[in-house]
Amino acid sequence: MATLADIGLAAAINILVAIAFLVAFAILRLQPINDRVYFPKWYLKGVRSSPTCSGAFVRKFVNLNLSSYLRFLGWMPAALRMPEPELINHAGLDSVVYLRIYLIGLKLFVPMAILAFAVLVPINWTNTDTLKNSEVEFSNIDKLSISNIPLSSQRFWAHLVMAYIFTSWTCYVLFKEYEIVASMRLHFLASEKRRPDQFTVLVRNVPPDPDESVSELVEHFFLVNHRDHYLTHQVVYNANKLSKLVKKKKQMQNWRDYYQLKYDKDPSKRPAVKTGFLGLCGEKVDAIDFYKSKIDELSKKATTEQEMIKKDPKSIMPAAFVSFRTRWGAAVCAQTQQTRNPTLWLTEWAPEPRDVYWQNLAIPFVSLTVRRLIIAVAFFVLTFFFMIPIAFVQSLANIEGIEKVVPFLKPVIEVGTIKSFIQGFLPGIALKIFLILLPTILMLMSKFEGFTSLSALERRSASKYYLFLLVNVFLGSIITGTAFQQLNRFIHQSANEIPRTIGVSIPQKATFFITYIMVDGWAGIAGEILRLKPLIIYHLKNFFLVKTEKDREEAMDPGSIDFASAEPKIQLYFLLGLVYAVVTPFLLPFIIIFFALAFVVFRHQIINVYNQEYESGAAFWPDVHCRIITALIISQLLLLGLLSTKHAVNSTPLLLVLPVLTIWFHRFCKSRFEPAFVKYPLQEAMMKDTLEHAREPNLDLRAYLLNAYVHPVFKDHEDHDSFTDDGEQECENVLVPTKRQSRKNTPVPSKYNGSSSPSLPDIAKEEL
Amino acid sequence: MATLADIGLAAAINILVAIAFLVAFAILRLQPINDRVYFPKWYLKGVRSSPTCSGAFVRKFVNLNLSSYLRFLGWMPAALRMPEPELINHAGLDSVVYLRIYLIGLKLFVPMAILAFAVLVPINWTNTDTLKNSEVEFSNIDKLSISNIPLSSQRFWAHLVMAYIFTSWTCYVLFKEYEIVASMRLHFLASEKRRPDQFTVLVRNVPPDPDESVSELVEHFFLVNHRDHYLTHQVVYNANKLSKLVKKKKQMQNWRDYYQLKYDKDPSKRPAVKTGFLGLCGEKVDAIDFYKSKIDELSKKATTEQEMIKKDPKSIMPAAFVSFRTRWGAAVCAQTQQTRNPTLWLTEWAPEPRDVYWQNLAIPFVSLTVRRLIIAVAFFVLTFFFMIPIAFVQSLANIEGIEKVVPFLKPVIEVGTIKSFIQGFLPGIALKIFLILLPTILMLMSKFEGFTSLSALERRSASKYYLFLLVNVFLGSIITGTAFQQLNRFIHQSANEIPRTIGVSIPQKATFFITYIMVDGWAGIAGEILRLKPLIIYHLKNFFLVKTEKDREEAMDPGSIDFASAEPKIQLYFLLGLVYAVVTPFLLPFIIIFFALAFVVFRHQIINVYNQEYESGAAFWPDVHCRIITALIISQLLLLGLLSTKHAVNSTPLLLVLPVLTIWFHRFCKSRFEPAFVKYPLQEAMMKDTLEHAREPNLDLRAYLLNAYVHPVFKDHEDHDSFTDDGEQECENVLVPTKRQSRKNTPVPSKYNGSSSPSLPDIAKEEL
Hints:
Two copies of one chain form a homodimer.
Chain A: H1 4-30, H2 35-38, H3 40-45, H4 66-70, H5 75-81, H6 84-91, H7 93-125, H8 140-144, H9 156-191, E1 200-204, H10 214-225, E2 230-237, H11 240-265, E3 272-274, E4 284-286, H12 287-311, E5 316-324, H13 327-335, E6 346-349, H14 365-385, H15 387-396, H16 399-405, H17 410-413, H18 416-449, H19 454-478, H20 483-492, H21 497-508, H22 510-530, H23 532-544, H24 549-556, H25 563-583, H26 588-608, H27 621-645, H28 651-673, H29 675-678, H30 682-695, H31 701-705, H32 712-720, H33 726-733, H34 739-744, H35 750-753, H36 760-767
Antiparallel strand pairs in A: 1-5, 1-6, 2-5, 3-4
Helix pairs in contact in A: 1-22, 5-26, 6-7, 7-9, 7-25, 7-26, 9-25, 9-27, 9-28, 11-12, 11-32, 13-30, 14-18, 15-18, 18-19, 19-25, 21-27, 22-26, 23-24, 25-27, 27-28
């Protein structure tokens, strides 16, 4: 068992690692050459242009201004300075609400830690008549924890009261946060500019009709049943083939640009290229002409394909985006049932155009339910039996196996150090690869389930990942053994034995989890801000692949926050904090440091780096709330089990009240706040409609909505051929800036050019 | 253990009892004096008039036509003859769908029984190498059951396959029935005449406003947010005091009528009455004048009270019935969220006026959730700990206790036979009283939970009663001991032990349940048709209390089917049938006889006796479906436990598939059909609106809806003062006939006067 000194040493090492990362970040971010890695958001916004354009050659790559190095933690206050409303404008509501998860961590655990250190730690520490149990050794940490209290002591009353206080505090914080987030969401939706999805409903499972096309059917149906409100609609095409063609054309255009650039720089020699495999063999031809002809050919193909898609009734999927004259009409249609058969004409609020997952729009209802069943079973198997195939792979991937397959490597492998390295490394590698691939696997499973928007897919994957972590990391660490062994044990144990079994081992695992928090939490967050992987990849791409300015922009692409895997990991810390708050309060400061560090780092990243792919308006909050409640209930049940092994039997009925109240609290919150995340209130819709009508009585909404929900590939295809019409441009402009859009048209948002607010880019540039 | 002969004897006795009941019924129903007990529905419909009016004096009371006695089972085919659509017209959809529950029982168990007797019984019977277990004795019935198969026999495969076949068959039947009932409901709703609830939405939790009254607030809100659709509204008054006054006035009117009648018959002597306690003492006054003055006084009081209610803003509850111009508008409002705060302006489909439970309309949202929590805890305690107070009462209610309280009874009690009778009788009486009161207690609990319609209250009580029966009758009979002891045992047993514990004792309890089916099922149903209690009460009332024709009608009141306690009892038979179908198929014929008898009897009762208080359009079907699914899953788990004790371990994974598939099937059905019972599709609403608009373009809907949702007490009050206006009369006419309405206006429905269909009343009259 680890002593306080051991923990101190581990903490020191991890703090050093974290500081090293932060210093490295502070140095690297000041180098102009890395500017696009650490401030891509500002590039995408169009506020910042390449610092490599001016100054001496060396200064293009290295920052020689030494004074700027002195303020190497300067980014921290800067990250905290931007006020929340401006941040919503800058990065969208999703990111801001995501940050609030870390904030909740602080709000929960700082008062808890203070209280626990003021009350519980003295109570645990001052206990003198320790029951010296020969089986369990006591370390210093155990002297601070509940383990130090002997069986059936009266001191357990303190822990009991604390459990009540902590539960009430958690519920209070959760309630307040839910209230704030819900009103933020409603305010965000209310203050949004006109957006196509406000007027649009996604209709699925349009029934087949022998006499009418899908488009006619949709039009007739809504003309009849939403007579006064229906405006227009857009059918959904199956455009996977066209997608491929357009993608290929893009590549070709890139190559042409590259050679054109080359030729412009050195007009003496026209670049040539070989037509064969990878440009290595075959006939040599003029590169610019070659790619031009290729592009023309693909353009024609794509145009034919596009026309074919639009003509062929088979390529029209039984789904449509139906737009209404008013937001009220759309809100009504999205919330009501259309026909007698509730599996036909399914209507739901349309995701914003960027958020649509086009491939899943055509899945029929019965298939959907079957898919859900298959994935539920598959996920269960994955969670509890994933060790079986991995163990199998591990048994194959040994030295003898490799020697059999690639005998010529034998002499190398047989070298002592290499052999031992492989032997130590191989067994873990299959598991490591699996864990790295896991979020992707879960996302594929969610896609198979048939959700129609990227945001829903991410939320679903996050739920799955959370369950996986709960079973395999939390329970797996406490009760050693694979998940399957646990399952087997749980089935063979009685219902009141299970919390006991876990409860007993909880205090013993405190030191393990403290180390886990430091290694996975602290160092992980410090690594997050360093962005080592994107840094390396950007420079590699920049050196080898980037041919044109467009390529550089693509190489710079910072991506979104990975909600599907990041959020479940945060939840693990909530679980640890709540479980150990009463049992071993010594763990709380480590969690607080994690949340504080993570909050600052992610605030910085959201301001400077990440560029969200879509905006769901914090639709994920009910999930976050629900998972913290789950953690709370788990902590209560484990405390119950632990205290019952401590013979504090009187506490059982008192502790049983807690989960009941917590579940009731959850249901109350659900009915009180969840509708704000699912439905769109008619009053709000009517208010916006009235306001808009007063402001712009002559608005041509039909033109505005005309191309909003066209499959992106049609737009791409037309974009490159410069066929875009104004209606489409206009409608995209109003969205929160995206990759595609900001790349297409880079007008600088007025707000960030004006000097009214001292926004980050100025600060960041000052430092250069 | 009972042998086949024992069961045969018990069956014979019970069959004799049932036949005795049926014969008694056949004789009693032919007596004219009982006509109002056995055919009240026809009186209420106005098709049948008292047979006591004509013929000789004796023939008024006794039927002397001997030939009619010969056809003493003639009511059975007559009961089956009325076709379903006509039955819907006659008794409403609720009753018809209620009958379908019995029909499902037949559809499920007849094929199951045939298959089980063709396959399982021979397999069980022909097994020769019986493992002679010394602990368990084998009876003949056990030779037919799964008990006859030795451990780890290959013959269990047959039971496994049967479990699959039975599950598939059950799911198939349930799916088909759900489909039929859903379409019946939608067809019923679509073919209904114009009804106020089609245009009306119940709005609750209207927020308080210092500047406006509730009525103004509602009007403004809906004028803004449902501009094109809002028509009118009706606020809800707190009229409990007025209710009491009106009730008292009614009594007085009754007395006046009685004395008036007396005076008319014998004009020589004006009737007199004493004004004191119960008319036994006090001053003697002229009865007619006395009651007239009393009535006038109460009338004035009621009128003042009514005006006060309408003036005092405190007596207006924050709820309203809001009516719309179109069904479409109402459907939209009922299905959407109105404001940002989902706990304000709650809208739901208005129950039909008769179905409203007025007292609960004003409960605020937070109070509702607290009430749910309280009732959930209370119900848990009631289910598992109800034996504790009863045991306490039993310990008090012994001979010594009685002798202490009423010492003068001592000599009587001490007589040998009386003493032993009391000793045998007393311990059971507390339990018996509790069980009789249970449905009432559960209904009170449901009322406390705050549901706003009678139909919802009945559904909720039925759910509670089902759980109570499941725990205390089914599990309580299998594992002897109180529910609390079971709970304790289950907590201390491992999850896979529980189905085993129950599974093992399942085959041993078969004979007990067969007896239970015969006593509770067969005899109970035969007793139902005899209507012994209503018969006695009617004659007692008729003899002692009935003063006027109105009183006689009230004494005749047949009531509704008691869904809240009858449906859960049927579910118990489904559970028994599904559990024993594989284990002891010998039980199935008994259940089939129950279902067949019950179907015929209840069809007869629905045609001739019961008069539903409200019409919910079979809104209870999702509950029925869900409970049969629960029974199916319980049966699968118990079979799993049973087979695992039989060492047929290979079967476990195969059997585990069944509950997973069943749960999936349930979810599929839920999403496929349940919306039909909760929401009203816009297409249907639009269709009815369009049709109506074409037929009656000049309909004055506002006048039609004016008084539809006025608190019934205002109507009652006005009725008796003959203040009723035409709007109200008209709107009540369109409902399915009710007690109040049919009493008020008794025009004979044209359908039952025409000779087009040979309906029951003709047949019933022929027999007289």
